[in-house]
Amino acid sequence: MPDDQTQRTPPARRSPLASVWTPGDHGREGADEPGVTMRQGRDISIVRVQYSGSNAENMDAYLADRFGVTAPAPNHVAENDGIRLLWGGPKHLTLVAPETTRLLDRLADLTARTGGAAVDQSHGHTILRIEGPKARDLLSKGTGIDLHPNVFKPDHVAHTALFHHTVTIDRRVGTSSYDVHMMRGFAQDLFEHLTAHAADYGYRLA
Fold it and tell me: Is 19 helix (H, G, I), strand (E, B) or coil?
């Protein structure tokens, strides 16, 4: 008889913002459109990959074979077929993709082929997309990095502090669109800071 453990389905992942997320428009009234729109990242896999410098060439060959893209340059992002590779520091990558891509399964032989290691961080992190004409202004209130579009361009990434929380900011392709990666345990506090400062512009929770 099969072990009961093998038949259990993991519980559905609950958003850390479920208790405070109220869809609709908030803050400043009277504007035709809100200055900021926020969306929760849902059904996303986040996998951290680390490897040694001596295996960099093997890692690039492995990534090209698996995902059709090599490791990005420092402070940049590479993407192919919906899978984003974020530079996370020397020999450190974060892979982000829809859960349907089964990222961790596709990395099953990573250690054998490259000597690297992959760790699923999907349940420990959450992603908030912030976009709109005032998105950059909002983020600039909480971080000291230069977000000017001539400096922080699409497919650039920064690891920084945002309202005193450690985050990764991934500049997406678009007029003003950013993915903010944060630790799940601090997501609600950071969200409350963001909405308090976004109220001046009017904001939408999609």
Answer: coil
